[in-house]
Amino acid sequence: MPELLLELFSEEIPARFQRRAAEDLKKAVTNALVDAGLVYEGAKAFVTPRRLALSVSGLPARSPDTREEKKGPKLGAPQPAIDGFLRAAGLSSIDQAKVESDPKKGDFYVAVIEKPGADAVDLLSDILPKVMTDFGWAKSMRWGSGSFNWVRPLRAITATFGTENDEPVQIPFMIAGLEAGQTTFGHRFLAPDAIRVKRFDDYQIALERAKVVLDIDRRKDIIRTDADNLAFAQGLSVIHDEGLLEEVAGLVEWPNVMMGSFDPEFLKLPEEVIIATIRANQKCFCLRDGSGKLAPNFIITANTIPADGGAVVVAGNERVIRARLSDAAFFYQGDLAIPLEHGLPKLEDMVFHAKLGTQFAMVERLVHLAAEIAPQVGADVEMTRRAAMLAKADLVTGMVGEFPELQGLMGRYYATAQKEPAAIAHALEMHYKPVGPSDRVPTEPVSIAVALADKLNVLSGFWSIDEKPTGSRDPFALRRAALGVIRIITENGLKFPLKVEPDLLAFFHDRLKVTLRDAGARHDLVDAVIASDSNDMLQITQRAEALSSLLASDDGANLLAGYKRAANILAAEEKKDGKTFAGAVDQVALKLPEETALAFAVDAVHAAVAAHVAKDDYKGAMAELATLRAPVDAFFTAVLVNDADPAVRANRLNLLARLRDTMHLVADFGKVAG
Questions:
Q1: Which 8-state DSSP code applies to residue 152?
Q2: How many whole angstroms separate alpha carbon 217 and alpha carbon 47?
Q3: What is the CA 137 to chain-centroid distance, rounded?
Q4: What would the pLDDT profile of 315-356 be if each residue is shown by its tens digit?
Q5: In whole angstroms, what is the distance from residue 488 CA to residue 441 CA?
Q6: Could you give the C-alpha distances from 441 to 295, 388, 499, 504, 611, in angstroms and in order?
Q7: E strands within 129-255?
Q8: Could you tell me the pTM of the whole model?
Q9: Each residue of 583-636: pLDDT tens digit?
């Protein structure tokens, strides 16, 4: 079957847009193909700095003929209804509709809409320019006198359609002053000549010969492997950075890896500063020696094959990196000369948010909140105050001004150099953490107190001004802050009830549900252990784990079935009687041994469960509940709840209510599926 080859050749596409653009192109084109009746077998998208490409295989030469019957109004319906039917069906007269009969509904109109198929090339000539016109770049531009927007100026369009053995058809369309054809171009420096292509296989081969690796993931593999091999040959290892690797692969079409070096004197700088400087300015990878220390070397990825083996390229990068590291050393020494606390007044000139005030105002609130939290997590109050006061001081340093991603970390370096206690210095770095699902969580008491205070300070502040995340929008990273609070509490096993307003507490519940479900917890079990006023994140987590273990056992599964039966009976009888049974069981009114056994078992288990819950021992509480399985089974086998004697009936319903209330001490089993 025929295949479509599309290439949009342009000036350099920013690396950060490339992968998303390739996926968006594939989605837009394939969705449009399906809508047009052109069902395909497979599609692959590719991207390099200068081209977006798409191959769609297994396309039919024509879209199929279609026949649709559209049901209309009854005979004798009002004219407006008939007119609307005609418009929807594309008919000019009701005479063009046929009449069908229904034994129950009578006679009604039916329009038979037949649409002949269309040639795939004709459909594609309409689809492709529309996809390009509607394409959603994060940033786009216009050039020349045209009105067409693209990420960078387009230079050529390849659009062919055909089978493996035939000469393909050029899909006829024009956009941005360019006519679609069969011509592409190779590497800008190594093979810039025009290349005529027919279909994807020869296109990919031709580009490879013209020094273009089409697949971004293959370019990444080449860079990673060559860098590792080059480093290994020198007794070194690459500091792998997936984000940098993705970016570098988006900067080159024919990757060529080389190694440079810098003055070992710069190794006196914090290694994070060196890595950030080399990464940000030259997009190079840093290296470690055999002992794990930072080496005075770096890996360059060039987009050419230098005639001199790379000497000029390496020397040029070395000159720039030396200058940048000199700047970093200047910032570092200048920052060390000024005590951190001397920078605090400058925070009054930094607006955190128009409605929340300056960074200094946020720090004042942070100090107060951290001091309140400190005793709850076993942290020294005065040390916590000091750490909270200095937490944002590095924001006004020269180094953080140059590399904002080093905030917190530079605070630790400066605090250590200025002889602050280790707990304070550590807290300055850790109070921002965790910033992602794989990031470290603070574990030292002072760090925990400041980290919790920082996140709760931000969350409560934005809630107070009604700036909350909506849909996918979360410009202030409040979801991340809430997840950070949850991880700090649960991973440190902290008994730390959240004292926040109900709306914010509900937000924490939503984030905790996401966390637990991502960890494999069933959504119904999570709902069963979260009440609207549950403010202890650790307790909720432990309850969910214990409930999951209980229901995984035979006793738990059967007990749940007994609970459901009891709850259904109670719901029906309470609705019928117009009252709620409170669980007050009259021991004298118990008639059968099975109901007596259940009453005594429930009383004993109720007390035991309450004791376990008071100690936050939810596994123990669930184990106690599991012992009710046998008496519950025996009760429902031998006892008729709705006895003819009203007093006996009411007592048995109270017994079931007592069972329900006992199980609710741990979780709302009514929310558990099954």
A1: S
A2: 10
A3: 21
A4: 999 999 999 999 999 999 999 999 999 999 999 999 999 999
A5: 6
A6: 28, 17, 21, 22, 32
A7: 154-162, 169-170, 174-175, 178-179, 183-185, 194-196, 237-238
A8: 0.81
A9: 789 988 899 999 999 999 999 999 999 999 999 999 999 999 999 999 999 999
